[in-house]
Design brief:
14 helices, 44% helix, globular, seven-stranded mixed beta sheet, 2 domains, 18% strand, Dehydroquinate synthase-like, alpha domain, binds nicotinamide-adenine-dinucleotide, binds zinc ion
């Protein structure tokens, strides 16, 4: 493999469903023309459906497609509409139809080129078409490069709940070209930073400090800072997934901010806030709960919330209120026997999971979001 790549493996141990296996995360700068070479080395089937959206098609998917052609693959492109509101079963159904029309069968492979919406949806199509065909991820947003492309959670939303349909289905490989971030809208950079701050908050205090120290440059964004951060986040995620691939416990730590965040996304019909913005609010609320329930020092909560406020999420739409958020949290996949199970933090860098704070505290923390300062961690 070329020297401009860096590569590390995600090692999934054996369980009752499958034997142990590994897959590489390849990262580099300006490497899309080498996609076909890597795909060939890793024995991706020759008949490939490149799934992408209209924003990414000409910018990057066309380069992936040319590279596949250069290395002897037979690619076709399938377009899906961009946007979270299209991460639905209807869109998946359309993808199945297009795969069928183009003559894809068991021998097909799927390559997802785009953000988390394309990756989650194309991955779900790959997990289910003909009971599963191999797939690869080419994430092109910061959020997808640090989070959604790694770990094999694929799926779509239902109108009343986020990611309620899905599978655990690991990619054959993940191919990250950091240069794709140069065309990303500022708002999408901030969304990716939200997930990066989450990793710091739950697993890596040093990363948290690095983000806090460099937040001005990251917001610009200064792309030079990203390769190291992306590799660090991918390796944090890989180590969690290696310990608990199917989220029977520990993997839940990654959901800090997400129970509240997903409720906000569902209530706003997946079309007002980005996922990153919704979890920015989610982390503020859940940090407040962490103070009350897990003994998170008030000072840590304040630091986390002020860093999150630097991401300037747009105001919450007036149509939603604290009561609705509380009710909608019960559609979360982690709810057991009617009880909420939250992923909170004991300290910065120390996530926890399966927490059920008193209803009173949960409601009080959500209500904080609707105060004038929008700062859920205020006194
Ligand atoms: N599977 C997981 O483990 C996991 C983890 C975190 C998030 N997610 C999911 O990821 C989704 C959010 O993903 P996202 O934040 O990438 O949003 P997204 O996929 O909606 O992409 C954001 C926008 O950026 C555009 N875009 C993509 N790459 C671009 C580029 N390089 N230049 C210019 N424009 C570009 C897209 O067309 C889209 O309009 C959510 O559905 C969330 O649930 C999944
Ligand atoms: Zn997320």
């Amino acid at each position: 493999m070329d020297r401009s790549f860096s590569k590390f493996m995600v090692n999934i141990p054996a369980d009752e469903r499958s034997s142990a296996f590994s897959y590489p995360i390849v990262t580099g700068h300006d490497i899309l023309s080498m996609f076909g070479s890597v795909a060939s080395e890793l024995h991706l089937p020759k008949r490939v459906a490149v799934i992408t959206d209209p924003n990414v098609q000409n910018l990057y998917a066309s380069h992936v497609q040319s590279s596949l052609l250069n290395f002897g693959f037979r690619p076709d492109t399938i377009l899906i509409p961009s946007g979270e509101e299209h991460k639905t079963l209807d869109t998946v159904r359309n993808v199945y139809d297009k795969l069928h029309e183009a003559g894809f069968g068991r021998d097909a492979a799927i390559v997802a080129v785009g953000g988390g919406v394309v990756g989650d949806l194309a991955g779900f199509a790959a997990a289910t078409y003909y009971r599963g065909v191999p797939f690869a991820q080419v994430p092109t947003t910061l959020l997808a490069q640090v989070d959604s492309s790694v770990g094999g959670k694929v799926g779509v939303n239902l109108p009343y709940g986020k990611n309620l349909i899905g599978a655990f289905y690991q990619p054959r490989f993940v191919f990250i070209d950091v240069k794709t971030l140069t065309t990303l809208a500022e708002r999408e950079v901030r969304s990716g930073l939200a997930e990066i701050i989450k990793y710091g908050a739950i697993l890596d205090k040093e990363l948290f400090e690095m983000i806090a120290d460099n937040i001005d440059a990251l917001l610009k964004p200064d792309i030079k800072l990203f390769p190291e951060i992306i590799e660090r986040c991918c390796s944090l995620k890989a180590s969690v997934v290696e310990q608990d691939e199917r989220e029977s416990g520990y993997r839940e730590v990654l959901n800090f901010g997400h129970t509240v965040g997903h409720a906000i996304e569902a209530l706003t019909r997946y079309s007002v806030l980005t996922h990153g913005e919704a979890i920015t609010y989610g982390m503020m609320v859940e940090a407040h709960m962490s103070v009350n329930h897990c003994g998170l020092p008030q000072e840590d909560a304040r630091r986390l919330c002020s860093l999150l406020m630097r991401l300037s999420p747009p105001p919450l739409p007036e149509i939603i209120d604290d009561h609705q958020i509380y009710q909608t949290m019960f559609t979360d996949k982690k709810v057991r026997s009617g009880s909420l199970r939250l992923s909170l933090i004991n300290a910065i860098g120390e996530g926890t999971f399966g927490e059920t704070p008193d209803e009173h505290y949960i409601k009080q923390s959500i209500r904080k979001l609707f105060t004038k300062e929008r700062d859920a961690c205020g006194p």
